[in-house]
Structures are given as structure tokens and as C-alpha cells.
Amino acid sequence: MKTQKKHQLQQLRRWRIRKKISGTSQCPRMAVCFSNENIHVQFIDDQAGRTIAAASTIGKGGASSLSANVAGATAIGALAAKTALEKGITQVVFDRGGRLYHGKVKALADAARQAGLKF
Questions:
Q1: What domains, with CATH codes, occur in the chain?
Q2: What is the phi/psi pair of residue 109, to 5°?
Q3: Angle made by CA atoms 68, 73, 79, in degrees to the nearest 5
Q4: Residue pLDDT tens, the chain, 119 long
């Protein structure tokens, strides 16, 4: 019961954030998703409804040995920024997915900023 309430409150936060932000082809939405084992980052153009670039701890990109902790979030933030810059993305809108801007989320955002993204 307690887990359902936490999930419901996070979903409400996610909807409240998504009501205010939206990505375009010039300034896509940088959506962050954390599971217990992996971190996923996507750069999304909401007007066209497509993902422009992505980075994750799964699959290609040399980040498969990372886990979903602060160190992994820092590495994925830098990798995501590098991937975005290769696609010509310099300005983004950060979507933290209903999570507090603390810990892994903050580490990922700071690493992306240091690698050259503006948000």
C-alpha cells in the first residue's frame, strides 16, 4: 500500500512537470529515467513525437559496466551530452521525471552541463 502511494505521488509530480515543459527540434526535452539497475537519457522532440538522441547504461556507448548510482549518473550525463552535441543539440529542457533534484539527478545534470549542454 505504501509503495502504491509513493508511485502515485511520483506520477502526479511527473504530470505536473510535463504540463509545463515541452521539447522542440531546436531545444529538445532531456528526459531522465532511473531504474534500480540502469539509467536512461533521451533527447525528445515533442512536436514531432520522436527521439533525437539517447544514452543508457544498456547497450552501445561503452557504459554497459555502469550502474544506477551517483558515479554512473555522472558518467551517463557526460556521455549523453557528448551524444547530443554530436547530433547538433546544444540547448535542452531538463525533465527530471518526477524525481527530486538531488543525488543521481543532480549529478547527471551537472555532468551534462560540464560537458557543454545548456539548460
A1: 2-114 (3.30.420.100)
A2: -65, -45
A3: 120
A4: 788 999 899 999 999 999 999 998 889 999 999 998 999 999 999 999 999 999 998 866 656 677 889 999 999 999 999 999 999 999 999 999 888 899 999 999 999 999 999 98
What pTM does this model have? 0.87
d(CA 78, CA 33) in angstroms, rounded, equals 16
Quote the CA–CA distance of 4 and 77 in Å, as a whole number: 29
Q: Which residues 6+ apart lie within 8 Å of 53 measured at CB? A: 42, 43, 80, 83, 84, 86, 87, 89
Find, among 83, 1, 75, 86, the residue nearest to 38 by Cα.
75
CA distance 43 to 53: 5
Phi-psi region of 22 (alpha: psi -120 to 50; beta: other; left: phi over 0): beta
